[in-house]
C-alpha cells in the first residue's frame, strides 16, 4: 500500500513544492489550505502526473475542521504516515500597536494549528505502528527583525513543541522533527494567477554563504528525507536550511 502524507498549507509556496515532491516519490497526498483555488490546482497537477491526492479547505486553528480533514483523509486514502505542518500566517507590526486579536490569531494558526494537526495525526499513526511529523518553523525562532513578535513567538513555540512531542510520541514509533527555513523565495510557487517571476540582486545572492536565495524544493527535499527510513534515528531535531545565513557574522 502506498504511504500517505498530509500537508497543511499545501496550496502555495513551500507547501505546494512539498506536495508535488512527495507525489513524485509515490506518496498519496492530502493537502489543506484556506485557498480553495490554489489547493485544487495542486491536486490537478498531482493527478496529471498519475498521482493520487485530495484537498480540503481548512482553517487549522479550528479543532473540528482539523478532525474532519484527518477523518476524510483516512476514508479516501486509507492511512496517515507523514504529516508536514507547514501552514502559517504572519501579522507584523510594532509591538506597541499590534492588537491582541492579531497576536492571538497568529498563535492560533501557527502554534495551536500545528498541535491540533499533530495530535490527530499521531492518534492514527499510533494505530498503524508509527510515522513521521515534520514541523515547518523558521529562522525567526532563533533570530529576529523588528516588529515580528507574534510570528517569532509562534515559531519558537513550534521548536519547543517539536522536542516535547518527539519525547512523548517516541514509544509509539512516531518521530517528530522541525525544519527552520531562512529566505525561501516563493513568488513563483503561488496559485498560477498570482505567481510572479522572482528578481534578486547580486547583493541578495551574495549575502548567503551558499551564493543564492533558497527555493521551496530546498525544504521539500529535507521533508522527504526526514519522512524516510534513512532518517529513522533522527527525532526531536531542528534543521536550519538558510544557505548559511545564521552562521554569518555581520558587522555594521
How do the strands and helices of this protein lay out in sequence?
Elements: E1 4-8, H1 13-24, E2 28-33, H2 36-48, E3 53-57, H3 63-77, E4 82-85, H4 100-127, E5 131-136, H5 149-169, E6 174-181, H6 202-206, H7 216-227, E7 238-241
Parallel strand pairs: 1-2, 1-4, 2-3, 4-5, 5-6, 6-7
Helix pairs in contact: 1-2, 1-7, 3-4, 4-5
Could you characterize what this model shows?
With 252 residues, the chain is α/β, with parallel strands linked by helices. The chain has one domain (4-247): Rossmann fold. The protein is 42% helix and 15% strand. The protein contains 7 helices and 7 strands, in the order βαβαβαβαβαβααβ. Strands 3-2-1-4-5-6-7 form a 7-stranded parallel sheet, sandwiched between helices. It is globular, with a radius of gyration of 18 Å. The mean pLDDT is 96.
N- to C-terminal distance: 56 Å
SS element count, helices:
7
Q: How does the helix and strand content classify structurally? A: alpha/beta
The total count of strands amounts to 7
Count of separate structural domains:
1
* CATH class call: Alpha Beta
Low-confidence sequence ranges: none
Radius of gyration: 18 Å
Strands side by side in the biggest sheet: 3-2-1-4-5-6-7
Amino acid at each position: 500500500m502506498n504511504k500517505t502524507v498530509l500537508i497543511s498549507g499545501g496550496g502555495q509556496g513551500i507547501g505546494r513544492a512539498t506536495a508535488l515532491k512527495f507525489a513524485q516519490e509515490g506518496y498519496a497526498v492530502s493537502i489543506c489550505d484556506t485557498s480553495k483555488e490554489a489547493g485544487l490546482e495542486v491536486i490537478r497537477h498531482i493527478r496529471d502526473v498519475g498521482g493520487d491526492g485530495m484537498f480540503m479547505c481548512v482553517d487549522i486553528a479550528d479543532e473540528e475542521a482539523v478532525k474532519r480533514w484527518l477523518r476524510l483523509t483516512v476514508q479516501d486514502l486509507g492511512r496517515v504516515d507523514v504529516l508536514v505542518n507547514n501552514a502559517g500566517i504572519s501579522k507584523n507590526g510594532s509591538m506597541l500597536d499590534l492588537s491582541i486579536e492579531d497576536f492571538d490569531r497568529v498563535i492560533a494558526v501557527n502554534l495551536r494549528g500545528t498541535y491540533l494537526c499533530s495530535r490527530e495525526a499521531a492518534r492514527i499513526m499510533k494505530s498503524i505502528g508509527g510515522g513521521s511529523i515534520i514541523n515547518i518553523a523558521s529562522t525567526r525562532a532563533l533570530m529576529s527583525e523588528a516588529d515580528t513578535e507574534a510570528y517569532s513567538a509562534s515559531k519558537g513555540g513550534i521548536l519547543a513543541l517539536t522536542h516535547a512531542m518527539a519525547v512523548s510520541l517516541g514509544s509509539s514509533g512516531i518521530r517528530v522533527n522541525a525544519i527552520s527555513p531562512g529566505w525561501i523565495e516563493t513568488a513563483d510557487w503561488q496559485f498560477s494567477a498570482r505567481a510572479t517571476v522572482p528578481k534578486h540582486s547580486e547583493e541578495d545572492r551574495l549575502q548567503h554563504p551558499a551564493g543564492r536565495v533558497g527555493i521551496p524544493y530546498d525544504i521539500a527535499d529535507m521533508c522527504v528525507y526526514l519522512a524516510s527510513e534513512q532518517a529513522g534515528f533522527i527525532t526531536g531535531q531542528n534543521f536550519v536550511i538558510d544557505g548559511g545565513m545564521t552562521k554569518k557574522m555581520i558587522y555594521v
